[in-house]
Amino acid sequence: MTSRHHPRLIAATVLCAAGFAFGQAYLSSSSRPLAGNVIIPQSRVMTSHASPAVKITEVTAGVVILEQVATTTMDIQLRNPTNSRVEAELAVPVPEGTVLRGFAFEGKASEPTMQVLPADEARKTYQSIVAQMRDPALLEFLGCNLIRSSVFPIEPNGTQKIRLTYEHLLVADGDRVDYVLPRSESLDYCVPWKVSVSITSSRPISTTYSPSHRIDTVRRASGAVSVRIVDEASTEPGPFRLSYLLESSEVTASLLAYPDAKLGGGYFMLLAGLPAQPTGGSTTQPAIRREVTLVLDRSGSMNGRKIEQAKEAARQIISALQEGEAFNLISYNESVDMFSSAPMLSTQANIKKAREYIDRINAAGGTNIHAALTEALRLKPLEGTLPLVLFLTDGLPTVGQTSEVAIRDVAIRANPHERRIFTFGVGVDVNTPLLERIAAETRATPTFVLPSEDVEVKVASVFKRLTGPVLADPKLEIADASSKPGPNRVHDVLPNRLPDMFVGDQLVLLGQYSGEDPLIFKLTGNYLGKTRTFTFTFGLDKATTRNAFVPRLWASRRIASLVDSIRQLGADPGPASIHNTAARDPRVKELVDEIVRLSTEFGILTEYTAFLAREGTDLSNRDNVLAQATHNFNERAMKTRSGLGSFNQSANSVFMKGQSVANNRNSFYDERMNRVSITNVQQVNDRAFYNRSGRWIDSRVVEREKEVEPTKVIEFGSEEFTKLAEKLAGEGRQGSIALRGEILLMVGDETVLVK
After folding, report:
1. How many whole angstroms separate alpha carbon 472 and alpha carbon 420?
2. What is 249-281+470-538's CATH number?
3. 469-479/176-181 β-pairing
4. Which of 432, 455, 457 minimizes the C-alpha distance to 673?
5. What is the DSSP-derived secondary structure letter of residue 415?
6. CATH class of 3-243
7. Contact call for residues 702 and 740 (beta carbons, < 8 A)
8. Which residues contact 242 (CB under 8 A, 6 or more apart)?
9. Do 735 and 724 touch, CB atoms closer than 8 A?
10. Fewer Cβ atoms within 10 Å of its own Cβ: the N or the C terminal residue of the chain?
11. What is the pLDDT at residue 119?
12. Do residues 240 and 210 make contact, with C-beta atoms less than 8 angstroms apart?
């Protein structure tokens, strides 16, 4: 085989929008003929044929951000599964102000060319391609610039690799810098993307955050971090959004707002980060010392692998404490045994004694959770320490006080020293709503360990996050222009009780606001051993509907909070049937009604409300809908307190209550811990649509679908359709008409049917 048969990298001719042209056709890109396959890496392959002849198999995006200049390199892998040679061209939506820096092509064809089209020319090209292909996919990207290639062939059963590199300047909003990689929000889009970002700044970077995808962040230096989308999120749809805060003080914060006239204000997200390298304390002692109490279940059900893993976790934790920090150990079955009557400082001698104590722990007997929790909270902590409790159990209470309400009340009413209780449910035979509430009431988090998982690894992972307390006992106050409390400016803020912040933590606070005057936040707490107040003033002039993730994330947390309230009402049922109680209890009725309203409006569904998306569910019959939802909450949320069917509810609850990243597919764990997704509800821009017999219905009219007559019918591809697309693009809602099939949507006060 000669070398000419091997794939080779062909450097392409790079054409700038104001520069060279590839033949006369490039002078008007929107009017030149289309290839048989128009490849949009961020969406799909558009074709005039019944099915695309070209497949996008994978996209890799490497981003380098240097002092707000972002260089994005996309490697696009294509495959022609047919026995015929096909022609294709590339159409890549890119941010405004993009400059093409490079284009490379691996294959046997002659050199292709590439051109960057500015917004106006790109808009015409988008509309031209949509009209010719009769496919609305590109409408999602109206407002973006466009990189378009000349036509190139792909050989039969062959593959093609294309690399393009573009550069653009990122816009800063105060101390926050935002990067966006355009991608489709369509649930049909399942092409895996590997995205990595390297950020380098002369200013220290406080924190990185993505509202769109789960990310891993590695700090290389105070002003250098590496970010990547985690493998599990590689097929999640939607544009990849990444923000980072440049450090400006001990606590750096930024505000993202979404306006909503119905609220007389809108929704907000407060993003706050800590210094890259917090300074406080000494070289040997942290500024805020921890006092850690490990409470280990040694009942008979812990015997074997579980107790050995728990003991090893305890050994690792006491060995990881720093000078000046303290610890204690409690083990319990039907009785409670304490290592020490008072917290002990972390010294080599004390650690040796503790290890000997751990070695002697054996599993046998019943489970007295109430007594163990009471003892853990009773002791006075060392002065000047942050008291933490790591509480492990693998079963239901069987000895002593077994009432769920009574045990819950210990954490709420018998915790005089405000210890943080990080609960660990080992296995599925635990009361998961109880462990959730104990943690939530004490600024802590619950962790649940499946039988197949390692207790030691789970405990160690949580303890690693508790390294170096930086801001303890935080409290948030809203002030007016004179620094006095500003009542009624914000509402339904979540979380309603702020957690302590440790090294590397960030705060994502969501809520509603009223009025248009600037919001002034005052954050007070124990910052590295001293009481400090940090004041942040944010104008609302940059509130935009393009921040659609803000209200959606708020709604997810709000729904989770309401669901948790229902679950807590199921504790300690009396002799009367819970079903009757749930159906008649006005508290349950009020909670269910609000959950259904929010779920319908925002298109956010849970295991309890997934039936709203089911074909045949009549959402206009409000009584039936509420009755079905009440039944689901009764049978699952209220009655099911332990077992795999409770474990999955808590896994879903923990995610949603702390949710700070999109869940476009409405994914959740079912009662068998299978991952379930809902595909006939589409969240797009700041709207939600329900698929009913092939027609997409705007959530704002879906409950009135049967009685609503469209005030206007618009044909796809018509001049009126083009005007509608332009109008929606101006509002950041053009994705609403990029769905396949008929669409019934609200446009202003009109109900419009797009056919």
Report:
1. 11
2. 2.60.40.1230
3. unpaired
4. 432
5. -
6. mainly beta
7. no
8. 178, 179, 180, 197, 208, 209, 210, 215, 227
9. no
10. N
11. 84
12. yes
Q: Give the integer Cα–Cα distance in Å for 585 and 578.
A: 10
CA-to-CA dists, residue 16 to 19, 146, 166, 182, angstroms = 5, 11, 11, 20
What is the C-alpha separation between 369 and 364, in angstroms, rounded? 15
Give the pLDDT confidence of 123-165 residue by residue, as tens digits. Answer: 889 988 898 888 898 999 999 999 999 888 888 998 989 999 9
Q: Specify whether the backbone of 631 is left (phi greater than 0), alpha (psi in -120 to 50) or beta.
A: alpha
Q: What SS3 state is found at 297?
A: strand
Task: Give the angle subtended at the CA of 133 by the CAs of 132 and 139, to the nearest 5°.
Answer: 95
Radius of gyration of the chain (CA): 29
Sole residue written with tokens 């079963």: 395
* Token pair listed for 345: 């400082």
Helix (H, G, I), strand (E, B) or coil at 168: strand
Once rounded to an integer, what is the mean pLDDT over residues 404-433?
96
Sign of CA dihedral 573, 575, 580, 585: negative
174: left (phi over 0), alpha (psi -120 to 50) or beta: left
Q: How many CB atoms lie within 10 A of CB 325?
A: 21
Tell me the sheet residues that pair with 752.
712, 745
Q: Which single residue is written with the structure tokens 């390297």?
A: 198
537-544 CB contacts, 8 Å cutoff, 24+ apart: 538/254, 538/255, 538/257, 540/257, 540/259, 540/265, 540/266, 540/513, 540/516, 542/173, 542/257, 543/257, 543/258, 543/259, 543/266, 544/257, 544/258, 544/259, 544/732
Asked if 40 and 93 touch (Cβ cutoff 8 Å), the reply is yes
Global pTM exceeds 0.90:
yes
DSSP 341: S
Nearest-10 crossing angle of helices 404-413, 369-378: 0
Number of other residues whose CB lies within 10 A of the CB of residue 57: 13
Nearest to 474 by CA among 505, 504, 503, 443: 443
Task: Please give the Cα distance from 176 to 364 (Å, whole number).
Answer: 55
Q: Roughly how many angstroms between the first and final C-alpha of the chain, as a whole number?
A: 54
Tokens (6 digits) for 610: 């997934």
Q: Which residue has the tokens 């409670």?
A: 336
Residue 471 exposed, middle or buried by CB count within 10 Å (0-12, 13-18, 19+): buried
* Under 8 Å between Cβ of 684 and 185: yes
User: What is the distance between the alpha carbons of residues 470 and 450, in angstroms, rounded to a whole number?
Assistant: 31
Q: If you count them, how many residues does the chain have?
A: 755
Is 123 in contact with 141 (CB distance < 8 Å)? no
E strands, 563-694, in order:
668-669, 675-676, 681-684, 687-692
Cα angle: 125, vertex 128, 134; to 5 degrees: 135
Around Cβ 620, how many Cβ atoms within 10 Å? 14
3-class secondary structure, 246: strand
Question: CA-CA distance, 555 to 602, in Å (whole number)?
Answer: 7
Report pLDDT for 9. Answer: 36
DSSP states of 58-125: EEEEEEEEETTEEEEEEEEEEE--SSS-EEEEEEEEE-TT-EEEEEEEESSSPPPEEEEEPHHHHHHH
- Alpha carbon distance 473, 498 (integer Å): 8
Q: Is there a shared CATH topology between the 3-243 domain and the 249-281+470-538 domain?
A: yes
**pLDDT (average), residues 539-547:** 95
Q: Which CATH class for the 295-462 domain?
A: alpha beta
**pLDDT digits over 471-487, tens only?**
999 999 998 777 777 77
Domain boundaries, the chain: 3-243, 249-281+470-538, 295-462, 548-677, 680-755
